[in-house]
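Example with several molecule types.
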Amino acid sequence: MAGGGTEPKEGLTYEGAGVSIEAGEEAVDRIREDAASTHKYFGGKPINAIGGFAFILELPCGTVLGFSTDGVGTKLRTAFISGYHELVGIDLAAMVFNDILVYGFIHGVFLDYISQGVQKPDRTKAIISGMIRGCHMAQFGLGGGEMAELPGFYKEEEYDLAGFGVGILPDRRHLIMGESIVPGMYAYGIASSGLHSNGFSLLWATFGIDFKDPDQAGERLNAHYPELGRTLLEEVSVPTILYRQGILDLNDKYEIAGMANVTGGGLARNPQRILPPGCSVAIKRGSWPIPPIFSLIQKRGNVAQSEMDKTFNNGIGFIVYSPNEIREEGVYKIGQVVEGSGEVIFI
Amino acid sequence: MAGGGTEPKEGLTYEGAGVSIEAGEEAVDRIREDAASTHKYFGGKPINAIGGFAFILELPCGTVLGFSTDGVGTKLRTAFISGYHELVGIDLAAMVFNDILVYGFIHGVFLDYISQGVQKPDRTKAIISGMIRGCHMAQFGLGGGEMAELPGFYKEEEYDLAGFGVGILPDRRHLIMGESIVPGMYAYGIASSGLHSNGFSLLWATFGIDFKDPDQAGERLNAHYPELGRTLLEEVSVPTILYRQGILDLNDKYEIAGMANVTGGGLARNPQRILPPGCSVAIKRGSWPIPPIFSLIQKRGNVAQSEMDKTFNNGIGFIVYSPNEIREEGVYKIGQVVEGSGEVIFI
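Resulting structure tokens for the full complex:
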């Protein structure tokens, strides 16, 4: 693996590839108080602050709801090039459901927003078919959606997607908020299937793919990489894993004190989001296998390790905190909870 | 008013302006059964079929939820030209909340999806500020959102928005599903503030506005129209009305048997959506004042009356069914429920 720990000036960054997480956070910070002024209207009691994996609301009747919204990012371009539109439908569902699964939601309602310049029924059907596959895997019901047609907003072969999920938990005792996590517990990483749906803008920059030139883009995506044992397009056409069944299987045998979804912000900025006050997590490098796509990106783009960490999942798609010794295929003991103030420390 | 009742071949149509509602419906029809296969996962009992103004779910504890998602359509271009981004934030909230209000939901949770090519904190803040204003008017709490940054998907000055609302009603007896509507009841129309957020693609076509040429677009939008008493840009920069308070005020004095939001599909395709089996609604032309913008569009675009009806609200933004004689400013007795099979009949 190349470039680990070094931060060469010429290395590619996510911000350089056009995605500025800080600018987004700035906008949110500036609006936080105004948004809070609406919280009296919820019709229930918020269980966590805005900014968790999902927003949790306890209804007066005791039922708990978990709300999440997400998109697929520029992974969408994979479908534009390949025509495999089911892919991003599954990804959309997975991005939303894995965020809600963190808190223990295993049923609920999904809605989608599909925005196109030109309505193409075959394509729309394929996207929704993918979402439905995701809904089956997460056991959420598709409750509706909006198909927007915005002439001139998108190129004919392009579109955007948003997904909304509401988890429904009849009994608050089944809610997993991570309060029982204590220093000494283990952090287990569950293998990802590759990039999932994060960091694609940096991926495209790394391989110098110019989507304004479809021939060039197609050629570069269809190039075979010995490191991957397949083409780049094949590599990135793997859907995001929906972790519901995997988590239920673990839950049958082990105590799960908390979970985290490795989503936007990568392995550097997600594992700590579920930790209670007074805890950090130490993640041991080399304690899990890095899939070859990540090593390839890092090497080709001369990407600093810190940039890899905050952009990609690096092979770990979901995290489980447990006091138990978990021994299962595809589950790696990647670290341990330590005393601290909510940090991810790579050791 | 020009062109009423005639269907000249050269008249502009919504489909000709790039929006094909039929193609969208075709995609949905082809996926309906597959979608239904996920409904066993809802974690509650569906009260209506997919395709209502909102999807209604009764939880085991008795609380009822109403789900809706929507966008702003090409009204977004108004904000791109004027820089008044609060506008479309309010519109987004209004589009979502008016759909949920139909069933009597007056509190709940809102989430948003903002998709940009480049994250611009000032612009994002303005959009969210508009949503927050809408949340206050509808008394929904802002529970979270996603700010997507998709380099190359949107021009720098453009973006797309999706909103998602979940109404929360602790007592099913307050749910208004329209079952008590019977022939003989009156249909009352509540005045819109103009186009609201529907039919903008046809509006742009009518005025020959070419957004690829910002100078031309700016010039045409800033033209003053004596019929409007203002510029076209001023006319279309009026936010969609949020009807919550208006409906609560009516509800204090009158019996409300059902409601309908005049959204995509216009006055021809929305009033009947809340009617129980065996009912149609006869709407009497000329029974309410048509705001000048609609007459202007019809005249300039030589738009057939049937096309006007299925594209625009034509001055009626929301409909209330009641057995009472309602006499309030801005509320018009526009028709009556008759025996029939769910049609809107213009008389």
